[in-house]
TrEMBL record, chain A:
Domain of life of the organism encoding this protein: Bacteria
Recorded GO CC terms: membrane protein complex; plasma membrane
UniProt keyword Repeat present: no
UniProt-listed Gene3D superfamilies: P-loop containing nucleotide triphosphate hydrolases
Domain ABC transporter: from-to ranges: 7-235
This protein's name: Macrolide ABC transporter ATP-binding protein
Cell inner membrane keyword on record: yes
Organism, scientific name: Aquamicrobium defluvii
InterPro entries from the UniProt entry: AAA+_ATPase, ABC_transporter-like_ATP-bd, ABC_transporter-like_CS, ABC_transpr_LolD-like, MacB-like_ATP-bd, P-loop_NTPase
UniProt entry keywords in alphabetical sequence: ATP-binding, Cell inner membrane, Cell membrane, Membrane, Nucleotide-binding, Translocase, Transport
Automatic annotation (TrEMBL), chain B:
Gene Ontology CC: one annotated term: plasma membrane
Main location: membrane
The organism of origin for this protein: Aquamicrobium defluvii
Protein's name in the database: Multidrug ABC transporter substrate-binding protein
Pfam family, one: MacB_PCD
Transmembrane segments: 21-40, 283-307, 327-351, 371-392
Domain ABC3 transporter permease C-terminal positions: 286-399
Topology of this chain in the membrane: Multi-pass membrane protein
Location relative to the cell: Cell membrane
Tagged with keyword Membrane: yes
Residues of the signal peptide: none
Molecular function GO terms recorded: transmembrane transporter activity
Stretches assigned to the MacB-like periplasmic core domain: 20-245
Length: 237, 406
């Protein structure tokens, strides 16, 4: 829908459990994220940031309230329609990389294209291109076990962007990496945001990682605690 | 897409080679058992058919006593039944139409001696038409002449087993053997026929003219059996009716009296035996089919393990946009590939087993393409049926839970 923001939370609640044991992971959150933003989400564990991220990534649905993705009420879509949405518009990067073991980098990157029905030859060339963009030329036929953590995360990023998504959802993308590797990954993500206009929503608990984003949202007890614009953006060195 | 999935499935099968092999084993054994049973079974059926054809096709065998009814031979008159004799044989020879050959024969198990060797042999006294009626041929030598039959000459034809016992691979022609203390000159060797399906050696025989047999061995003029083979103009049942009418007439049985002789239709027996053997084959096949079912359950078991083990992989696939059907198809194809692979190995194993059995039991090797195709189809079906539940379980996983799975 033209004019509607990419992501819109309207009194989004997410409740787990019943009765006394009921937990409000999200307690009526309003939030708007526009196309092209780079947002980091912070907060202590149990604050609702992971729940928010799962809903943003269309992996989960709100208990009440509305989640609109590109103007579509994504919270009311069934599993398969949400899968289609993820396949078409959303890329995922996880803390633990989540690559298929014993499967080459190129094959891992091709995976989302298979579910999109892209023919094999075209798939291969798109995968090669995405791997080149993340700086992994020459590693296409290595399996995850033969790659370092930083390289594995690059493969995961290549897999996320190979479908040219609108949104990249990153769940602690640097959580398993050392400082130097972390900053390399963040520079790569910043470049994707600036050069390709890729919207990025990233969960992290490290302030210096969050500083790469232009906006930082803090969650606390299922509510938005703060929504800050980063004046001084950490520059890629 | 499907080819992609098959490739993926093959790769996953290869990666867990040992586990895949153990899973396959159930299907392999099941399919091999079915194939071997059915192939050996149809070989046996064919063997039985050809054995009975060797006894003589279109052959009627007349024997004294009541016809063997449902209660089998026996009854009050078993001991003092009226024998068959030259009277009946002559009547059939002159009056029966539609017969290709009519032969009278009597037989007895008798000790036969050559030099210092001695062996127990089935000795049959008969005429030269016997060979034609029974479909027997000579490997060498000549049949009895008319003259020899009439005069009761001391000549005989011997079977392959008897030759090997006495002469090894040598030529028996013209040798003298002793049959029940009278001397007999070997004039011919019967073509080897091997064992019957009932384990009877058809080559452990000596044939001599009926008169010679009656005088020197039986000591009476009785005929045990009259063999009548039908020519192509008449069915065996039609010929049997004609034959019974002549015999009732000759033996002066009143219209309301029961037959005091029996006629066996070898064609009918052949059919009965073959169908009994086929039924047996079917039953054995069904029992073997049960092991296929067990194999299928093995597949289900392993696919459940596989789905659990690969929960995280399923989570990744779901997150990046796989729909339920993609996951379902992936695991279904994997189960099908697995069981199909087992089916193909099972067919090869089953056919080799059947081939080995065919050689060992000297029955024909009769693989049935329809059975093989059916086994392929059935093993694929087993994979699909038993793979469906685990695959569905995988497809229904929640992506968030699946991704969290360690």
């Amino acid at each position: 829908m033209a004019g509607s923001p990419l992501i819109r939370f309207d009194k989004v609640r997410k409740t787990y459990g019943e009765g006394e044991a009921q937990v409000h992971a999200l307690a009526g959150v309003d939030l708007v994220i526009e196309t092209g933003e780079f947002v980091s989400i912070m907060g202590p564990s149990g604050s609702g940031k992971s729940t928010a991220m799962n809903i943003i990534g269309c992996l989960d649905t709100p208990t009440s309230g509305t989640y609109s993705f590109k103007g579509v009420d994504a919270g009311r879509l069934d599993r398969n329609r949400r899968a289609l949405l993820r396949n078409r518009y959303i890329g995922f990067v996880f803390q633990g990389y989540n690559l298929l073991a014993r499967t080459t980098a190129a094959e891992n990157v091709e995976l989302p294209l298979i579910y999109r029905g892209v023919p094999a030859g075209h798939r291969r060339s798109l995968a090669m291109q995405a791997l080149a963009e993340v700086g992994l030329q020459g590693r296409e036929h290595h399996t995850p076990a033969e790659l370092s953590g930083g390289q594995q995360q690059r493969v995961a990023i290549a897999r996320a962007i190979v479908t040219r998504p609108t949104l990249l959802v990153a769940d602690e993308p640097t959580g398993n990496l050392d400082t130097a590797r972390s900053h390399e990954i963040m520079e790569l993500m910043t470049r994707l945001n600036e050069e390709q206009g890729l919207t990025i929503v990233m969960v992290t608990h490290e302030a210096d990682i969050a500083a790469y984003a232009r906006r930082t949202i803090h969650f606390l007890d299922g509510n938005l605690a703060a929504d800050l614009r980063n004046e001084v953006r950490r520059m890629a060195s | 897409m499907i080819w992609e999935t098959v490739r993926l499935a093959l790769r996953s099968v290869r990666r867990n080679a040992l586990r895949s092999f153990l899973t396959l084993l159930g299907i392999v054994i099941g399919v091999a058992a079915v194939i071997a049973m059915l192939t050996i079974g149809s070989g046996t059926t064919e063997k039985v058919k050809s054995d009975i054809a060797q006894l003589g096709s279109n052959l009627l065998v007349v024997h004294p006593g009541r016809p063997a009814g449902p209660g089998g031979p026996g009854g009050a008159d078993w001991g003092q039944r009226r024998k068959l004799g030259a009277k009946e044989f002559d009547a059939l020879s002159t009056r029966l139409t539609g017969a290709r050959a009519i032969s009278a024969a009597s037989q007895k198990q008798v000790r036969v001696i050559y030099g210092t060797e001695s062996t127990s042999v089935s000795v049959t006294g008969t005429d030269s038409a016997f060979l034609e009626a029974r479909n027997w041929t000579l490997a060498s030598g000549r049949p009895f002449t008319e003259q020899e039959s009439r005069s009761g000459a001391g000549v005989c034809l011997i079977g392959e087993t008897v030759r090997q016992q006495f002469f090894g691979s040598g030529d028996p022609d013209g040798e003298l053997i002793r049959v029940n203390r009278s001397t007999c000159k070997v004039i011919g060797l019967l073509q080897a026929k091997g064992y019957t399906g009932f384990g009877q050696d058809q080559d452990n025989v000596v044939l001599m003219p009926l008169l010679t047999y009656q005088r020197r061995i039986a000591g009476n003029r009785n005929i045990d059996n009259i063999y009548v083979s039908a020519d192509d103009s008449v069915s065996t049942s039609e010929l049997q009716t004609r034959l019974e009418n002549i015999l009732r007439d000759v033996r002066r049985i009143p219209p309301d009296g029961e037959d005091d002789f029996g006629v066996r239709d070898m064609t009918q027996i052949a059919d009965t035996m073959a169908s009994a053997s086929a039924t047996m084959t079917g039953m054995l096949g069904a029992v073997a089919g049960v092991s296929l079912l067990v194999g299928g359950i093995g597949i289900m078991n392993i696919m459940l393990v596989s789905v659990t083990e690969r929960t995280r992989e399923i989570g990744i696939r779901l997150a990046i946009g796989a729909q339920e059907k993609h996951i379902l198809i992936q695991f279904l194809v994997e189960a099908t590939v697995l069981s199909l692979l087992g089916g193909i190995i099972g067919i090869l194993l089953g056919l080799s087993l059947a081939g080995g059995a065919a050689i060992a039991l000297s029955i024909p090797f009769a693989p049935n393409p329809a059975v093989v195709l059916l086994a392929v189809g059935f093993s694929a079906l087993i994979g699909m049926v038993f793979g469906f539940f685990p695959a569905l379980r995988g497809a229904r996983l929640d992506p968030i839970d699946a991704l969290r799975h360690e």
